[in-house]
Every structure is written in C-alpha cells, then in structure tokens.
Design goal:
With about 325 residues, the chain is of the alpha+beta class. The protein is built from 11 helices and 8 strands. Helix 1 runs antiparallel to helix 2 and helix 9 (about 255-270) packs antiparallel against helix 11 (about 320-330).
Length: about 325
C-alpha cells in the first residue's frame, strides 16, 4: 500500500526536482525496501490504524521540499514514524516492537550512519519504563527523517522528552538540558552558547509559555551534526513570531531583519493576513498542533541559534488552494 501510494508521489517529486535517473532508482529502492514495509497497515476505511503524531491525519510519513535560494535545485525529504503491523491493537497497543526492528534495517541500508549521539540521546531521553498511552497528547515515541541528495541519503532522528520528564517529575526543558550537557562533545559550557541563549529566553518571565516537543539530531559524526529543539508557542500574532525568531531581541543582525520582512510577506499571503496589525493573533484553533511550531538549531561551539518557524497553514489558512496560490505568487 505505502509503496503504491506514497512511493508514487515520492517518484513524482524526485522527477520534478530534477534528480538523475540513477539517484531516483537508488532513493526509490531505499524507500521500497527499507521504509514502506515499516509504516503500518494501509490507510483504508475500517483499518485499525496507529494514531501517529507525524501528521494531523495520523499518516506516519510526511514528504517535503527544501527550496534553496538562488538557482539550486530543490531537495526532497521525508519523515516517518516506524509503525508495526499490529500497532494500536491488543497485540501491540503502544507500538513497542516497530522501532527496534527498524533500527536494524536502517543500519543495514545506511551503514555509514553514525550512532554516537543517537545512542546517547536515546538513552538519556528514554523513561525508565516503556511509556504507555497519550500522556503527551499523542502516543508517538520517535521519528526519523531522511534528506535525499543526488549522491547520498542522510538520516535524522527525533526524540520526545515529555515521557522522561513526566516520569521524573521534571520539565521538558530540564530533561533536554541534562541530555545536551552530558552528550559527547557538549560537556564544555563554552560550546553551548547557543543553547544557553535559548535556555535563558525560555525561562525569561516575559517569554510566553513554550512547549518543548522534540529534540532532533543528524545521524552523522557529532562534529558535523546539528542539535534542533522543536518548541510550540500558543501565541499566534506576527509580533510573537518576531519575539521567537529573535529570541526576545537576543539575536540582532541585518540579515535576520531582512528575513523577517520577507517572512511577513509570506505570512500575509498564506494566512490571508495582509493589513492585519502585528499584534493581532490568528483565529483560535484548539488543537494539539495549534499555535505555531518553531525549531532552534545550533552546533556545538555556535554562539547563537538559528530559529525557524513553521507557518501553520493546516489550521489557519483559508484553503489548500489559497496556500498554493499564495506560494506561487511569493516565489
């Protein structure tokens, strides 16, 4: 099922992005052999499906484009949650078996995958007992993503700190901070300037409450990897977006200001907010994935994080057609 549906769309994206025939075959072979068999039962009427947090309709895979600046061709990517054939049933109510099996498949398919940080964060963020149910508003435990270049496939892993935080009676940020400070190549505080800035911003009384959803790493050598913390704010005005992107004015530079001006144009187009004051919030959306999702990205040794925002078209745009039209006009 997943090969015939998602594999078909992936093939179209690779073609439209200009990948060579050789790269398309290599990527589609990887998808068909190593990914499609680990996405659970078919998304068909009557199927007892695992309620994956990957997408709002619970599909365990999400395809995406990375449009680069200049004339460079776009990069295709996808993210997944490994799902067992019996996930969500009485046989495997918490999807406990899928990830262990998928890890073995992944290491065979991508033997150059580096596990040093993966093993550390997997242990540091795993609760003492296997988590059950939806204590975080969803039951998902781990995601993987893959950047598909012309020459190679690079993996990423996404960990959820909330399960460990709840079992140890800590905040998600406290659990993340401990995991990061004890990671290989991160024990020296001088290498964590970017994280310290984020930590200070998150704990500032003037900062609205932030929900720490995930920690992501690249599955490469720690010296080459990024750390990314995904956090959600329920405030939805563009003024709040500016506050997040600048870390409360802790990050100031001309390129960021230019980027915020461009972002406001895209924001206005996609969300139909032209002429709306910066401090006016978007219409209310009472949903687990409501509000606005961000990620702050840094490497050990960097002094300030790079902050990205995910424009919440799913909950706040007038329609899919409106989004397509607005993107076309912006680009």
């Amino acid at each position: 099922y997943w090969w015939h549906t998602t594999g078909y769309v992936l093939n179209l994206l690779l073609q439209e992005a200009g990948y060579t025939d050789h790269a398309q075959r290599r990527i589609l072979t990887f998808f068909g052999r190593s990914i499609a068999p680990h996405l659970g039962v078919a998304n068909e009427p009557g199927a007892q499906r695992w309620p994956s947090f990957m997408t709002d309709n619970h599909n365990p895979i999400e395809l995406s484009w990375d449009w680069h600046t200049g004339k460079k061709s776009p990069t295709v990517r996808f993210s997944i949650e490994p799902v067992g054939p019996n996930a969500g049933t009485q046989v495997d109510p918490d999807n406990q078996s899928a990830d262990a099996h998928f890890r073995k498949v992944l290491m065979q398919a991508l033997p150059n995958t580096d596990r040093e940080w993966f093993d550390h964060f997997d242990q540091a963020l795993a609760p003492d007992l296997p988590p059950k149910g939806c204590m975080e508003g969803h039951p998902s435990k781990i995601f993987y993503a893959f950047d598909l270049s012309e020459e190679d496939i690079t993996g990423k892993a996404y960990f959820f700190p909330g399960f460990k935080a709840r079992t140890t009676k800590q905040t998600n940020l406290q659990v993340l901070a401990e995991a990061i400070r004890t990671a290989p190549h991160c024990s020296d505080n001088e290498k964590l300037g970017a994280f310290l800035m984020f930590e200070d911003f998150a704990q500032d009384p003037s900062t609205p409450p932030l929900e720490m959803d995930m920690l992501a790493i690249d599955l490469v050598r720690p010296a080459d990897s990024r750390l990314k913390i995904y956090f959600r704010a329920r405030e939805t005005s563009f003024a709040s977006v500016r506050q997040m992107m600048t870390m409360g004015n802790r990050i100031t530079n001309p390129s960021l200001e230019a980027g915020l001006r461009n972002l406001r144009k895209l924001w206005d187009g996609v969300l139909a907010q032209t002429g709306v004051p910066d401090d006016t919030p978007l219409p209310a959306a009472n949903h687990r994935t409501g509000g606005i999702l961000y990620n702050m990205e840094f490497r050990p040794g960097s002094t300030a994080p790079n902050v990205k925002v995910y424009i919440p078209a799913r909950h706040y745009a007038p329609s899919d057609w409106h989004v397509v039209t607005a993107l076309n006009e912006y680009m």
